Amino acid sequence: MTTPSPRLRPAEATDLDAVRDLLTDVFLVDPLMSAIAGAAPDPRAALEHLHHVELGATYLNPDHPGAMVDLAVDDAGRLLGATLWDAPADSSNATDTGNPGNPAGPLGPHDVPPAGLDLGLLGDAWELCLLDGAICEAERPAEPHWYLYMIAVAPGARGTGTGAALLRRGLERVDADAAAAHLEATTRRAASFYERHGFVDSAILNSAGRLPTYWAMTRPKRRHH
Predict the structure, then answer these.
(1) How far is the C-alpha of 62 from the C-alpha of 221, rounded, in Å?
(2) What pLDDT is stored for residue 113 in this prediction?
(3) How far apart are CA 46 and CA 40, in angstroms?
(4) Neighbours of 5 (CB within 10 A)
């Protein structure tokens, strides 16, 4: 029996709760995010809150045009997976370090936390969020690039090609821009998936034992003939 291909569509503001819940379910057991959220008084509530704020402030915010969210849904409209991308930033948005890409991590312009963030709910997890963001940012490519912030596939949709379909959709935009793409993989299994789509390891990310080891990966820009 053939599994139907998921239908891909752009996310809308009304998808916020469904995307938040998917991200929370998936990343609560991710090695990196579980270590970060585990420092909060209530790990699930903290991670759900962090995703809600990031989606509302950035990824599903119509005033933030550089963010792109693709969804995979089934024939009944149920959410199967999501990808969160940041488009290359122009030079007017470059960081103080000269990196023309958008900053990784939870901070907005001028290192200001997103509006509505409850630092009490996050507790010690907030410091680890900042550490993760700084580690990732230090290894971002110097050239303008698309950044895959998150990819999440519902447990019941794994092995159906949903993640690959979502990633290919994003990489179509990357190649249309003749740009590089960058991400972080938190397991070697995930890294192997990205390698099949042209990504290569660019750095090992570690924090002297405060967070699990993970990997920065870059897909060089494709040449057009």
Answers:
(1) 28
(2) 81
(3) 6
(4) 12
Query: Please, how many CA atoms are within 13 Å of residue 149, restricted to the half-sphere of its CB?
Result: 24
The token pair that represents 221 in the structure block: 């820009």
Per-residue pLDDT tens over the stretch 89-99: 753 344 443 34
- Cα separation, 184 vs 63, in Å, equals 26
- pTM assigned to the model: 0.90
How far apart CA 187 and CA 39 sit, in angstroms, is 20
Rounded distance, CA 135 to CA 194, Å?
20
* pLDDT tens-place string over residues 170-187: 999 999 999 999 999 999
Stated as kind and residue range, the H or E segment containing 73 is strand 67-73
Query: What count of residues does the chain have?
Result: 225
* Angle at alpha carbon of residue 105, lines to 67 and 139, rounded to 5°: 100
Amino acid, single-letter form, for residue 63? D
**CA-closest candidate to residue 86, choices 220, 183, 202:** 183
Alpha carbon of residue 157 to chain centroid: 19
Extract the tokens encoding 127. Answer: 């410091």
What would the two tokens of residue 16 be? 């916020």
Comparing CA positions, the residue from 206, 198, 34, 35 lying closest to residue 215 is 206
